[in-house]
Amino acid sequence: MSDAPLVAGVELGGTKCVCLLAAGPNDIRGEIRVPTRGPTETLAAIDAVLKQWHAEHGFRALGLASFGPLDLDPGSSSFGCIVATPKRGWERVALLPRAGAFSVPVAVDTDVNGAALAEGLWGGARGLDSWAYVTVGTGIGVGVIVRGAPLRGLGHPEAGHLRVPRLAGETWPGNCPFHGDCAEGLASGPAIQARAGVPFSGLAADHPVWNEVVHALAGLFHNLILTVVPQRILVGGGVVLGQPTLLPRIRRALQASLADYGHVPRSALNEDYLCAPALGERAGPLGAIALAHRALE
Ligand code: ZN
Q1: What pTM was estimated for this model as a whole?
Q2: Residues within 5 Å of ion ligand 1, judged at the Cβ atom
Q3: Cα–Cα distance, 21 to 107 (Å, whole number)
Q4: I need a surface site. Which of 12, 110, 211, 222 has the fewest CB within 10 A?
């Protein structure tokens, strides 16, 4: 048990939603998974979990960490809504109105910003000022924290859709429905599967499809390092965590790509700079708890 307040968090993901009742990573009092189906059915199931927890335990704040893109402009009429998404049925779905019934502070942000904040509180970004959390799985998500807060402009970054140079001779068009061969269209799990014809989890480490995955991700990190200059990049998600040879290969490609230019010299691009999240696959669900803690600040 910890002295931290008891809060609730929901990570809304592409295939499942994870509801947590917790004070922190070592004090989890409840965890319920809800399969992601249509928005009405899914949000009603989450609502029922939260209602029960609220009645029985009285959580102090609620954090929602969701797949996006999300409208995070508090002045917008669609604040807290999912905006243009390839996920059928979820476009313009509001996440916040259902949360207001609990009369507690609510914070909503992207799943990757939540995971990045969780790594800052309890994981591999403790003590840092600016860092990035990248997940390479069903899609590619990038959470960027600058001076302790998620980076915001007109909206949140969608750096997984950055365009990256192609490996010489490669012409596969990519599978992003918006951009074709953006980073996500080349290196996400579904992109790898579309290209290789089998799920990424079954691919040998020397399968040729990894060459462009490594190239695309090194290109993504090259751009990220030169724009937001993070002190560390934490890379999670099923694709990277499931293929242990990838991170070392990406580090080498990144060293060659950056070529000692900028603030991160070749020697610093090591396993302490580009590394797996310390919270592993728990970074996502704990991100919703981290957001709830921020709502109390
Ligand atoms: Zn794209």
Answers
A1: 0.95
A2: 161, 176, 178-179, 182, 184
A3: 15
A4: 211
3 state DSSP class of 34: strand
What is the percent of the chain with per-residue pLDDT over 70, rounded to a whole number? 99
Please give the mean pLDDT across all residues of the chain.
94
Range of the structural domain that residue 204 is part of: 125-276
DSSP character at residue 160: G
Stretch 138-160: mean pLDDT: 95
Q: State in Å: Cα 259 to ligand 1 middle.
A: 27
Determine contact, residues 134/140, Cβ cutoff 8 Å.
yes
Taking the centre of ligand 1 as the mean of its atom positions, its distance from the CA of residue 207, in whole angstroms, is: 24
In the numeric block, the tokens 């140079």 are attached to 165
Instruction: Report the CATH number at residue 84.
Output: 3.30.420.40
Count how many domains the chain has.
2
| Structural tokens at position 65 | 């960490």
pLDDT digits (tens, 9 = 90+) for 47-87: 999 999 999 999 999 999 998 889 998 888 888 898 877 67
CA of 185 to the centre of ligand 1 (A): 6
Q: What is the mean pLDDT of residues 91-103?
A: 83
